[in-house]
Design brief:
The chain is an all-beta fold and 100 residues long. It is built from no helices and 11 strands. The protein has strands at 2-3, 5-10, 25-34, 37-38, 43-48, 52-57, 60-65, 71-76, 80-81, 83-88, 96-99.
Length: 100
């Protein structure tokens, strides 16, 4: 079975450092790839501290509350090994994707 990679980027934070202090919600994009090629139709579960689990079909954009805690992402697609990762919360407004 092939491996998939889950990428998540905090799109709302692209406006600059001041964005971190504005609003209580932010948009996050979920994309699943096979190498560098997007893999549409993967089923993903995003777990947040306040909203619990949200299930989406990638590619997807979700809106989540701003938190100082990580978001956990799990994705699966037929013929591929499931992928798990987390979107690290970072005070300076950057987002990192860390597979585990």
């Amino acid at each position: 079975m092939k491996s998939i990679f889950t990428a998540a980027a905090a799109l709302a934070l692209l406006g600059g450092c001041g964005t971190v202090f504005d609003g209580t919600r932010q948009a996050v994009e979920i994309e699943v790839t096979d190498g560098r090629v997007p893999l549409a139709g993967a089923n993903c579960t995003v777990t947040t501290p306040t909203q619990g689990e949200m299930t989406v079909t990638a590619p997807a954009r979700i809106v989540v509350p701003r938190h100082s805690v990580d978001l956990h992402v799990s994705c699966s697609h037929p013929g591929y090994v499931p992928a798990h990762g987390r979107l690290l919360a970072d005070f300076n407004g950057t987002a990192e994707n860390t597979p585990y």
